[in-house]
Amino acid sequence: MKKYISILKKTKLFAGVADEEIGAMLSCLDARLREYKKGEYVLRQGEHLNHITVLVSGELHIQRDDYWGNRSIVNRIAVGEMFGEAYIAPESGALLNDVIAVEDSAVIFFDVRRIITVCSSACRFHSMVVQNLFFAISEKNRTLVQKLGHISKRTTREKLISYLSEEAKRQNSTSFTIPFNRQQLADFLSVDRSAMSNELCKMRDEGRLEFKKNYFRLLKD
Question: What pTM was computed for the model?
Answer without folding.
Answer: 0.75
